[in-house]
Fold:
Amino acid sequence: YQRRVMGTLRSSMQLVLLLLCVSCLCSFSTSTIFHVVSFRFQTDVETRALIPSFLKAYQHLADVVVAPDNPQRKLITSFKYGQQRSQEGMSFDPKRIPLDRSTEYSFILTFDSFEDRDYYAAVDVSKPHSVDHLEFKKLVGPYLDGGYDGCFITDFEWPDVTQVDEQAL
Structure:
């Protein structure tokens, strides 16, 4: 009897695990656009004091940037950030001269489509776009180390729907 109960329990647990995996896969049935931004701030006392307000202002964009045709739909579907913690020797240390590729804070914003990302980032200002993001850039830009050279941005789609041409590699 105990073996039968344990076997049924094991089968039930396997079924739950399978359903959980299917559920996770279904949540990725469409692609997500990841907008990754890293900042390196100037090291002066004034800038250091302003960093918490810059972080708060950037996070605030996730609440205020909405679809132009539907103010109930936030375009930024996820916003995460943190101070860099790399141990690979490429990190920023305000007490020494930073390496050119180093950054201090990184942000990961997600969007449902490239169109949503383009609207947020004001890729083409001749088209409708978010003024909130442009205002944030004006706010933080003067405090980045080297101006906008103190900012690194990359975007990617996951899962990547493009096919890699292995012969081109």
The helical segments are 2-27, 45-64, 114-121, 131-140. Strands lie at 32-39, 66-67, 70-74, 78-83, 105-111, 151-158. The first helix runs from residue 2 to 27.
